[in-house]
Amino acid sequence: MAVTLPRPHRLDVGIAVGSLLGGLLLLGIGLGMRPRENPIVLWPGPWPVLVPMVVLAGCELLRRIAPRTALLTGTAALTADTLTQGSIASLVMFTDVVYAAVLYGTPASARRIPWISALVTMVVTVGSFAALREPEALLLGFMVGVVAFAPASTGLIVRNHRDAAEAARLRAQQTALLAEMDRTQAVTAERSRMARELHDLVANHLSAIAIHSTAALSLDEPETTRQALGVIRENSVEGLAEMRRLIGILRDDSGDSEPAASPTLDGLDALVEGARTNGLDVTLDASPGDRLPTPVELAAYRIVQESLTNALKHACPGRVTVTLARRDDRLELTVISPYGDRDGPRAPGSGAGLVGMRERTALLGGTFEAGPESFPGDPGAAAKVWTVRASLPTTPHPQGGPA
Predict the structure, then answer these.
(1) pTM for the complete prediction?
(2) What is the pLDDT of residues 131-144, one digit of tens each?
(3) What is each CA distance from 146 to 19, 126, 188, in whole angstroms?
(4) Do residues 70 and 62 make contact, with C-beta atoms less than 8 angstroms apart?
(5) How many other β-carbons are positioned within 10 Å of the β-carbon of residue 46?
(6) What is the reported pLDDT for 333?
(7) Is the four-CA dihedral 60, 62, 66, 71 of positive or negative sign?
(8) Beta strands 330-338 and 367-373: pairing type?
(9) Alpha-carbon distance values, 115 to 64, 149, 387 (Å)
(10) How far apart are CA 297 and CA 326, in angstroms?
(11) Do 38 and 16 meet the contact criterion of CB atoms below 8 Å apart?
């Protein structure tokens, strides 16, 4: 199967044509040619010089697309040129072929060619001096060094600089890519945090408004309607105040990642009292002990808040039990609410609350589970309670952060 080489580079075509024209000009005026009487000239006359010159011009076309082939062919052509009267153009083209072989060749060629050219230079220098026993013999070795070793060394230096520049460019691209990934992750994390905060701040109030407004519209009892409207107004005012506080946080450019007054476990009594106002029968048993880290207290508060909101929206009549207890280096939180079909109005759910609770727990390195269970102490009974359990570490977690 024939191998098709790519087309020569436009610059290489220019170099080949220019070198060949320059060589023909030098040949025409007889400049740079050895005399006929030189003992190494086997083929005198100007025309034998043309053959290696044309071959080397062809090698210039391959200097970039096939540098190793160009070097081997050029070496044979230069060897043949030494048996003619010679041309400066052929020597110049050969030096460029050596330079290109190191610059554009394989990494192995780039390492070996300078060493081989250095070795050839040393062998020619020592051999010519040993054979002629004259100082002028050293000039032959110097010429070989100029024609072979110098361009090979120059090509290696340029290649190293080029590789270093390419490595720096790749590192810059990688750094930019990592920075963009960090920015995207930071934006995603901030959006998730804002979504959790927005959901936790207003979902409870909006759920109470939806349920009591449905009750007010469905029951034709003035007293019930008046109480429902009172609960609606109270939740509307509180929800509006919390929305304004959240908007103020979003507009604040001070760089604080958390609200100035984050909810703590001290606010659980008020939270439970508000749930009772909305119609829930809630029992609170909280003994968290000493003051806990702010992220832990905020996460525990939000999980209780969301659990009470879910109980308000979905639970059937019955008592809701909230329990918080300190166990060594963890805060154990349990919310149990009645589970089953309810006859009264209910607010629709999207499942975002469970996702938010699970995310808050994961950020602290804790565990979370929620689902229907049997009554405690009666494993064989049908599932009649909905249980939310969260275990929050009270010590710093490597991935933990503000919830």
Answers:
(1) 0.52
(2) 777 777 677 778 88
(3) 19, 16, 62
(4) yes
(5) 13
(6) 92
(7) negative
(8) unpaired
(9) 21, 8, 77
(10) 12
(11) no
The answer to whether 313 and 342 are in contact (CB under 8 A) is no
Residue type for position 383: A
The pLDDT, as a whole number, for residue 402 is 43
CATH architecture label of 265-403: 2-Layer Sandwich (3.30)
Using only C-alpha atoms, the chain has a radius of gyration, in whole angstroms, of 43
Domain ranges of the chain: 10-175, 265-403
> Tokens 């007054």 map to which residue?
261
Q: How far apart are CA 388 and CA 315, in angstroms?
A: 13
pLDDT in tens, 82-127: 888 778 888 899 999 999 999 998 999 889 999 998 898 888 888 8
Q: 3-state secondary structure string, the chain?
A: CCCCCCCCCHHHHHHHHHHHHHHHHHHHHCCCCCCCCCCCCCECCCHHHHHHHHHHHHHHHCCCCCHHHHHHHHHHHHHHHCCECCCHHHHHHHHHHHHHHHHHCCHHHHHHHHHHHHHHHHHHHHHHHHHHCCHHHHHHHHHHHHHHHHHHHHHHHHHHHHHHHHHHHHHHHHHHHHHHHHHHHHHHHHHHHHHHHHHHHHHHHHHHHHHHHHHHHHCCCHHHHHHHHHHHHHHHHHHHHHHHHHHHHHHCCCCCCCCCCCCCHHHHHHHHHHHHHCCCEEEEEEECCCCCCHHHHHHHHHHHHHHHHHHHHHCCCCEEEEEEEEECCEEEEEEEEECCCCCCCCCCCCCHHHHHHHHHHHHCCCEEEEEEECCCCCCCCCCCEEEEEEEEECCCCCCCCCC
In this prediction, residue 369 carries a pLDDT of 92
- Taking the C-alpha atoms of residue 100 and residue 15, their distance in angstroms, rounded to an integer, is 12
List the chain residues with pLDDT less than 50.
256-260, 399-403
- Bridge partners of 334, per DSSP, are 323, 389
